[in-house]
Amino acid sequence: MIQTEGLKFAYPGSPEVLRGIDLKIKDDEFVAIMGENGAGKTTLVKTFNGLLMPSAGRVKVDGVDTHDSSVAKLSRDVGLVFQNPDHQLFSETVREELAFSLRNFGYEEDTIDRRVASILETLDLTRYAESSPFVLSGGERKRVALAAVLVWNPKHIILDEPTIGQDYQQKDRLRNFIIQLNAQGKTVIIISHDVEFVAECKPRIILLSRGLVIGDRPAEDILTDEALLDRASLTRPQIGALMHQLKDYGLPERTIDVYSAEQAILHALGRKE
Amino acid sequence: MSIVQANHLSFTYTGASKPSIEDISIGIAPGEFVVLTGPSGCGKTTICRCLNGLIPNFYSGDFAGELIVDGMSVKQHTTAELAPHVGMVFQNPENQLFSLSVERDVAFGPENLGLRREETRKRVDWALDVTGISRLKDKPPYELSGGQQQRAAIAAVLAMQPKVMILDEPTSFLDPKSALEILEVISDLNKKLGITIILVEHRLDIVSKHANRVIVMDNGRIVLDGTPKDVYGEHARLIGIGLPRVTVLFNLLQRDGIRFAETPTTVDEAVDVLRKMLIR
Amino acid sequence: MSLKVFDGFKFAKLPTPIHNMDPRAKFIMTMGIFAAALLFQNIYALIVIFLIQLPIVYASKSWRKWAGSMRAGLLLAVLIFVMNFVFGSTFVFSAAMTLRFVTLMSTFSLFFMTTSPDDLGLALEQTHVPYTLSFTFTTAVRLVPTMALDAQTVIDAQRSRGLELDRGNFMKRIRNYIPILIPLIVSAIRRSIELAEALESRGFGASPNRQPLIVLRMKATDYLVVTLTILMVTLAVYVYLYVPLPILDIPIKMPKIFPWF
């Protein structure tokens, strides 16, 4: 469980970015942290693995206060995938890149070989094992960056804006993969402003605005609340907007994904599928 | 008379094993609002680079066929010569704005053209006004929000008064609200100033209402070309482009046997169609 | 490794007379102090020259940043002192050389702190430095804080993969910086290419005759500063040549431990 109590954070000499956050994220939850640019989303997740220490209040990961631990120790359980893969990739081959973290954590060489082979397989990267990460396309580099974190199998995974620059098919694969990870028992936290993507995933949404939590409810509640969306510079997902405008015709307003909408409309038109 | 005319255009980057774009032949009329889309790697960015002369001037490779923009062949002119005719706005606003004030960044283009100070002044003020950021002119770009930065980037290109503007995924880094706002700005450029727009986008849900033409590419070739309604069918879905959710919904309902007069591409259209059906 | 060393050279816009000074006048003033500091070896003179900066720092309202930049150079200052002292110079002489270094560093830091890279570029352009050179310079300066941010992100990303930068012997620590340097360099190159594309697309180099929208004009106060600087330098030369300065004689020298003395 990741827990924050009265979490405040400010960079020295700057106004507070996080102004008092109380959160509980249980194991194997699927959470999306959303909010306008500058709301504090990335700052918040950086306190989860110790990169940033609270200016006030506490962050506890699986019962351990982050003050009493270190980034290296916390990272074993909290894997943070950064937005831009170019900020991570540096090795001669993809294989070396994936082995990097395992070496840092002190694994044995044969365990390393095994784990690297396994994650290459899982993320469909085996054919790039001996390639330089720098010659891969943008989407492939993002997959390598993801693999580089998953390779050590952390309990909690945080993905910072995983959908930027991805095309539809890549986002589709990503969504399925995230849901699979969550089904395997991992806590999955994504930061995203991609309303359509989140609407199809239907996670719990923690809505941040100017350093405070302004909403913490299931996606169907947050993404249909006009006032909240407006404060966080978000828009209704298309399906949600459609249902909202047709609510007087008997369609359920809290539907935000395509398949539920399909069922609802078929039902309203008197057909069953 | 087309403002953009491509004839059997192909390009292979130096060292690449196959062409990035192959046998592209299209004509774009002045004043069109074209959305260019397709899966990653389909060649959209390569076409953009050809359109403003970065290919072949900045990027080397095998250039075959012909591309004429506003009467100028890109093979025979430098990017600088093409700049007053065709401008390009890139994905990441941060790496396009380099001055310490918005005003100086917007002035950069006209200054490069060697214009007189008074003319530059006029153009800068005009471009800032059109994009709605006049009050931000003395601010450093890094103090602006993503949406404001993209407006500044558009103003910087606009100041050169090109007839054609290419925008490569300009909403990528923007939050949903800013994305919608920037598309309004771009739409105004098209409707009020008559600038031909070529917009590369994955997020077809937000651009469909502005576009009068959608070109879908796959593997370096153009595979679909028409109005949004013409293009957003089963074939498009199979290619894997990001159709608007309402269109996907209606395609599913059609497979379930429901008949529609036409497939909506925007929420408003979808509401109209369903409302009529639900009243019955 | 603290990135705060860059803070002392980072421009921040403040409405002070120093910030508003024409960069050319400011540069002449900086060079004046620079020349005076190089001229003297006498510790009293160097102290006076160092102190001349203080009213300027006061007028620019940048105490903390200025002090910060000196703290950053502390290591190098200590090194200079030790090098001089160990190789046989007197305590006073070593202190004088250290003070000279500190003065040079702090005066340039003050210059960059109060002058925007754009104004610098304009100044260079208007003194007929070729445009491509002045542009390269100001873009480089402009990108320093951006790259510092990039560096911090890279450090965060790699630490999140278990990289520990404060462990291990000397060799290991150096090797640990490879996963920081490479992404940083790659990032810098990608950023430069993107910027170059954008600039080309806006006609960079289209015409050799640029009329910048904004032009620097020297005001009366700027000419005053230049005049004062010339006077100061002249005075310094005069004092150096003709005025015998008191000598501070503290007989401390390096004890003769080493055989080469």
Total domain units of chain C = 2
Overall geometry of chain C comes to flat
| Helix vs. strand class of chain C | mainly alpha
Q: How would you classify the helix and strand content of chain A by structural class? A: alpha/beta
**Can you summarize the main beta sheet of chain C?**
none
Tell me about this structure:
The complex is a heterotrimer of chains A (273), B (280) and C (261). Chain A has helices at residues 41-48, 71-75, 94-104, 109-122, 138-150, 168-183, 195-201, 219-222, 226-231, 238-245, 258-268, and strands at residues 2-9, 18-25, 30-35, 56-61, 64-65, 78-81, 156-160, 187-191, 204-209, 212-218. By secondary structure, chain A is an alpha/beta fold. Chain A is 38% helix and 21% strand. Chain A folds into two domains: 2-224, 3-Layer(aba) Sandwich (Rossmann fold); 237-273, no CATH class. In chain A, α3 packs across α4 (109-122) and α3 (94-104) packs parallel to α5. By secondary structure, chain B is an alpha/beta fold. Helix content of chain B is 39%, strand content 21%. In chain B, β7, α7 and β8 form a beta-alpha-beta unit. Chain C is mainly α and 261 residues long. Chain C is flat, with a radius of gyration of 23 Å. The model of chain C has no long low-confidence stretch (mean pLDDT 85).
